[in-house]
Amino acid sequence: MLKQIIVSEDEYENRVALLEDKELTEIFSERKDSNYILGNIYKGRVNSVLPGMQVAFVDIGLERNAFLHISDVHREFSEFGEWNQQEEPNPKSKTTRKAQRHSINDLLKQGQEILVQIDKESIGTKGPRVTAYITLPGRYLVLMPTVENIGVSRRIADEAERQRLKDLVLKLRKDNNGYIVRTAAEGKGEAEFKAEMNFLTNNWEQISRQAESSSAPALIQNDLGLTFRIVRDLFTEDVSEFVIDSKAEYHKVMDYINSTLPNLKSRVKLYEKREPIFEAYGIEKAIRRALRKKIWLKCGGYIVIEQTEAMVSIDVNTGKYVGKEDPDDTILKANLEAVKEITRQIRLRDVGGIIVIDFIDMDNENHRRKVFRAFKEALKVNKAKTNILSFTELGLVEMTRQRTKPSLTKMLCQPCPYCNGYGSILSEDTITIDLLRAIKKAHYKNGHKNLKVIANDIIAMRLLQEDADKVQKLEDSLNIKLEIEEDIDLHMEEYRIISLDNNREIYLD
User: How much is the CA Rg of the chain, to the nearest whole Å?
Assistant: First the structure.
């Protein structure tokens, strides 16, 4: 399989796309003016304890208090169970059973200070979820300073190799710290482990000192920036190329790669063409397709994905696909093709919670089993923890998928103001960033220096007020003059760019 990592960084956001056989499978984004907090470590103060729910709310200095469940509180008797496919500890198994024997009142008191890490971002009206099980991920190891257990990623299947890696950690670790051995550690030796352990333990010592000298609530450590998290977590030997369009970011990555992954440095490339990198690789179009409800399959069938507050429903239809064979075989082929697209869309859209799939009805029990096995197998590449149930009596497949951050729709869209929120449209942030990029593209297309932007009144006012500094910076960087005009008849997502040098509209692909 051809794997590519494509990195786009501009003044507005940093985006990373993972392509597999040139198909977009995952997208990551951090806007420059957003507050990304997943993985951050805080010193918090317990605001309230609810023994009936076995939870506490912790003030970590953000707008909403963080949610801390009893299963996420470190205790001397706690044990970790198996490691799931995310290569993260799963304290919910044995820990949860033991936690139920104790009240959270025994562990936390109102006003108590506690060191916590963001486990899930804020979603909707909910505050972030935090854990007291601190994890510091490296490339080969994850340090867990609050436990003593050693785990090995399930993706390392060879038992002899698993034991070798565990013995190596036991030999080298200090202070009985807990560790997870990551998939990338397979085949690595003492030198790599020793260097990473030193780096991670030094980091933990710095965090401990900072926490000791800080008053709650306080941010103790930010997680790494997006590009470096991707290098750490996803840039492995099976990635063919890592392409970056920012010269500054490219040099930072190369400095890191030269010192830690010299064998991969030839795969890191600087993209210098004028065409935006996400357009050159077809990523922008793929993102827009991923926001649609209806996705056509190559066979002529289609799937419909509906996201609600309660769950995500996915409906498979034969559409134009009628086949030339037995009807049962036609349905089987359509369902098997749908399996591939559904698993890709789940991963790309980053949907979580309850997911219900309504495949095309199959009377043949062997066909049902074949589709279910194919679905389970396809989900194995999904790093988010999933739990899948077999076909129900109604022919539905039910599953749950771990939600750790907002979905693609939540990230890029907002409730539609035209239909009272029944649907969704691109958010004001997304439209504004798209428009600013379009202005740059329009200038590069013909070199005109005097441009008029006509936009919906909401977006026009945003450019003139809230984002006026971004407009000014764009004018200065391109040496152009922009005139902004509002048109209340334009849909919020629509805009026009006119060249005032020749009074003609500029059409972009």
Answer: 25
Residue environment code for 214-241, b if the CB has 16+ CB neighbours within 10 A, otherwise e: eebbbebbebeebbebbbbbbbeeebee
Name the residue among 18, 489, 505, 425 with its Cα closest to residue 238: 18
Please, are residues 115 and 399 in contact by the beta-carbon 8 Å criterion?
no
Candidates 49, 164, 170; CA nearest to 105 is: 49
Q: What is the pTM of this model?
A: 0.79
What whole-number distance in Å separates Cα of residue 287 and Cα of residue 38?
23
Amino acid occupying residue 310: A
Encode pLDDT of 18-52 as tens digits: 999 999 999 999 888 777 788 999 999 999 999 98
pLDDT over threshold 60, residue 182: yes
pLDDT at residue 259 is higher than 80: no
Does residue 372 contact residue 391 with C-beta atoms inside 8 Å? yes
Q: What is the mean pLDDT of the chain?
A: 88
Angle at 253 between CA 153 and CA 204, to 5 degrees: 50
Residues 6+ away with beta carbon under 8 Å from 168:
189, 190, 193
Q: What share of the chain is helix, strand, coil (3-state, %, to 5)?
A: 35, 25, 40
Q: Name the amino acid, one letter, at 154.
A: R
pLDDT at 90 over 50: no
- Reported as a pLDDT band with limits 50, 70 and 90, residue 87 is very low
- First CA to last CA across the chain, in angstroms? 30
**Residue ranges of domains in the chain, CATH in brackets:** 3-35+225-283 (3.30.420.60), 40-73+107-132 (2.40.50.140), 134-222 (3.30.230), 292-412 (no CATH), 428-507 (3.40.1260.20)
The Cα–Cα gap between 335 and 368 comes to 9
Would you state the pLDDT for residue 225? 85
Tokens (6 digits) for 313: 């429903």
- Pairing mode, if any, of strands 136-137 and 129-131? unpaired
Q: What is the pLDDT of residues 104-137, one digit of tens each?
A: 888 899 999 999 999 988 877 788 999 999 999 9
